[in-house]
Amino acid sequence: MSFLTDKQSLEDLNLLGKYKSNSIYSLFNKTKTSGGEKLLEALFQTPLSDADQINDRSSVFNYFHQQHLVFPFQRENVEAAESYLNEGEEGNFILSVIGILQKKVGNMVLQSAEYGVLLKGLQSMVDLLQDAATFFGQLKQSGDHPFQDKLDKTKLIFKDQRIINLLTEKRIEELSVLKIARYNYLLRSALCKEMRLLFEVLYELDMYIAVSDVARSRGMGYAKALPATKCLLKASGLKHPVLEKAIANSISLNQQENVLFLTGANMAGKSTWMKTIGASIYLAHLGMPLAADSFEFSVMEGIYSSINVPDNLNMGYSHFYAEVLRVKEVAQKVSERKNLLVLFDELFKGTNVKDAYDATLAVSEAFAAYTNCLFVISTHIIEVGEALKERCENIQFKYQPTVMDGLVPRYTYQLKDGITNDRQGMMIIENERILEIIDGSK
């Protein structure tokens, strides 16, 4: 079973994008190698759908979170060493000797650069092995995470007497051709599988350490995944992972209360809270750290959102029609009885108030009946909430208040029970003196 989402949801939640401003991926991408970066990118694109796998991965991140390790390798050095290995395996030791002799003669007679390139590559590999031997010696033994077996296999590489001998070498260029050939054959052929394992583990370590460093510096925690049958999301002290000064809130949804109906004035924080919930659930399915004091969730089959739905001029779609098509698309997924998290921010804001009221009420009530899904629905049409109170028992109502400091609104971003009665729109317009500006232009 794969985790379902789409481009619209990924963009709404700003999850992906190496160069995208404030994306969740860019927050965690502090890797030092291209291999580590590729692993992190692949991880971000493949959320897990099994509770045990999620908890196993979380335990690995948490292990490195506690270790306070520094990844001692630089991108250029690692790439140079891997490039040396990738130049090809030596068929046997004799062929290795012959090949190196030919390169050395070519260097002496024809001033060929091949011999120098080989020496440089071999030296970079030796330097990396020396640093790796020191680094792996610092890793504490722990059987509490599934990555330990891979670490143990990698550590065995440095107990091989041939590697021990190699680690004593300082300047490869000063060695005899025979010794260079022996080391060249050892790394490219005799221990080729072990060297591949070493690079694989180094890239994983790069990713794990980079992510856990971000988590530690930001005081993040780790989620506990439960089987999909639980239909649960329970978190305390939950914040948006990117916002350093975000206000923490709590959430508790289950099959008996599977809909959070959120009200509040514009700028009160509704959209940010919805993005916080969506991004955190996505990170939880990756087994990655998230900004919460505690976070418990049942595995879901996907996330769909409607937060920043654009119009489509090429297709001739108005903003309202684009919203309608988006709701229809999500409704089709929900009707398939999949366990989904659905986020709807300000439904049908592209039409008149009467239609928006009727449509938001009807759609919210219809979705609420699918108790295998969790929904967060926001609106500033507070009358919808009052009507839903009378019709549905499985909806919880929260709002984010606006506090007036005289004539100036202030937003606490703290969730409160109930439905807001804040109506400061006209006051804000008056504060900005828009009508005076218009009158003055006559």
The total of helices stands at: 17
Rg, Cα atoms, Å? 29 Å
**What ranges have pLDDT less than 50 throughout 5 or more consecutive residues?**
none
The total tally of domains equals: 2
Residue share in β-strands: 5-15%
The global form is elongated
Proportion in helices = 40-55%
Largest sheet: 6 strands, mixed
* Overall pLDDT score: 86
CATH homology group of the largest domain: P-loop containing nucleotide triphosphate hydrolases
Protein name: DNA mismatch repair protein
Keywords: ATP-binding, DNA-binding, Nucleotide-binding
GO biological process, one term: mismatch repair
GO molecular function, one term: ATP-dependent DNA damage sensor activity
Structural notes for this entry:
- The protein is α/β, with parallel strands linked by helices.
- It folds into two domains: 67-217, no CATH class; 220-433, 3-Layer(aba) Sandwich (Rossmann fold).
- 51% of the residues lie in helices and 13% in strands.
- It has 17 helices and twelve strands.
- A six-stranded mixed sheet has the order 6-7-8-4-9-12, with helices on both faces. A four-stranded mixed sheet has the order 1-5-2-3.
- Helix 14 (353-368) links the parallel strand 7 and strand 8 (374-379).
- Helix 5 crosses helix 7, helix 6 (93-109) packs across helix 10 (177-190) and helix 8 (148-157) packs across helix 11 (192-217).
- The N and C termini lie far apart (64 Å).
- 38% of the residues are buried.
- The mean pLDDT is 86.
